[in-house]
Amino acid sequence: MKATLVEFMDIAPGVRHFVFQTPAPLKFAPGQFVSLSADINGKNVTRAYSIANPPDGNRFDLCLNRVEDGAFSPYLFSMDPGATIEMREPLGTFTLPEPLRDSIFIATGTGIAPFRAMLPVALRSVPVTLLFGVRYESHLLYRIEFEEIERASSQFRFLPTLTQPNAAWTGRSGRVQNHLKEAIAGRTGLDFYLCGMRAMVDDVRALLKDMGFDRKQIRSEKYD
Ligand SMILES: Cc1cc2nc3c(=O)[nH]c(=O)nc-3n(C[C@H](O)[C@H](O)[C@H](O)COP(=O)(O)OP(=O)(O)OC[C@H]3O[C@@H](n4cnc5c(N)ncnc54)[C@H](O)[C@@H]3O)c2cc1C
Q1: Residue of the CA atom closest to atom 34 of ligand 1
Q2: Looking at ligand 1, which atom is closest to the CA of residue 74?
Q3: Which atom of ligand 1 is the closest one to the Cα of 64?
Q4: Phi/psi class of residue 204: alpha, beta or left (left: φ > 0; alpha: ψ in -120 to 50)?
Q5: How far is the CA of 49 from the centre of ligand 1 (A)?
Q6: Is 33 helix (H, G, I), strand (E, B) or coil?
Q7: What is each CA distance from 98 to 95, 126, 161, 208, in whole angstroms?
Q8: Ligand 1 centroid – CA 48 distance (Å)
């Protein structure tokens, strides 16, 4: 199947939000990813990207970091609206289970992408806390959207944290690992969803296990 790039927005330094269109409505569960491929310098390269919006007919969004010297992401950043790219059907098991339980989403960087898709769906039935870690304030992807959802829904808590805050920042600082207790707030019947780079995901998983949570309560997606 081919996807056509409709538009893109630069949403942080080196991070781009892409809107693609497919010939037929795209069926997927929030949290799944698509695999995109292209011939680059004579090699066929394929990479996975989490879909960053809930199902929306023929349209899907991606949120991508431009990896300097990466084989694939710079190619996607070079695409202009109207260009097409080969893609495979959405896949993946990093999805919301039935029945849903009180949920904590933990993301770093572009690991926020699947949570932008899952959040509106999860919030229809359970409370959700989103703990989101980035380096700089300018990298708090989709911050305005999450703040708006927090204002509109008493079921949602948004906990951003910065590892490199500027002097004016009065919010949380440090890694997501430092804010697990605040996110958990004494609750036990929770499900955790972790997404981002391997180092964070493995570390948070180990900390949650040390706190007594069962591995069945922890789902994760690693980007590397
Ligand atoms: C299931 C799944 C979903 C993914 N979803 C996304 C997504 O929504 N957005 C996204 O930007 N990436 C996502 N990735 C990562 C993506 O598949 C590529 O690995 C990434 O774009 C780098 O590819 P590249 O060819 O440009 O770099 P490569 O030449 O493959 O270089 C790999 C280097 O890039 C680093 N890297 C990989 N992903 C990232 C990242 N997101 N930010 C910073 N460094 C990274 C790796 O640690 C490694 O050092 C996902 C990966 C998986 C497995």
Answers
A1: 67
A2: 26
A3: 11
A4: alpha
A5: 8
A6: strand
A7: 10, 11, 30, 22
A8: 8
User: How wide is the angle at C-alpha 220 spanned by C-alphas 49 and 151, nearest 5°?
Assistant: 80
Which pair of structure tokens corresponds to residue 126?
């359970």
Q: Which residues contact 60 (CB under 8 A, 6 or more apart)?
A: 3, 19, 20, 22, 26, 28, 34, 51, 52, 53
Total residues found in the chain within this entry? 224
CA of 223 to the centre of ligand 1 (A): 5
Q: For residue range 73-82, what is the model confidence (pLDDT) as tens digits?
A: 999 999 999 9
Does residue 99 have a cis bond before it (omega within 30 degrees)?
A: yes
Give the whole-number percent of the chain exceeding pLDDT 90.
100
pLDDT of 47: 98
The two tokens of residue 140 are 């708090």
64 close to ligand 1 (CB < 6 Angstrom): yes
Six-digit token pair at 75? Answer: 């190619």
Residue found under tokens 């011939």: 39
The dihedrals phi and psi of 198, each to the nearest 5 degrees, come to: -50, -45
- CB-based contacts of 56, cutoff 8 Å, min separation 6: none
In 170-217, DSSP assigns E strands to 172-173, 191-196
3-state helix, strand, coil in the chain (%, to 5): 25, 35, 40
The CA distance from 169 to 161, in Å, is 10
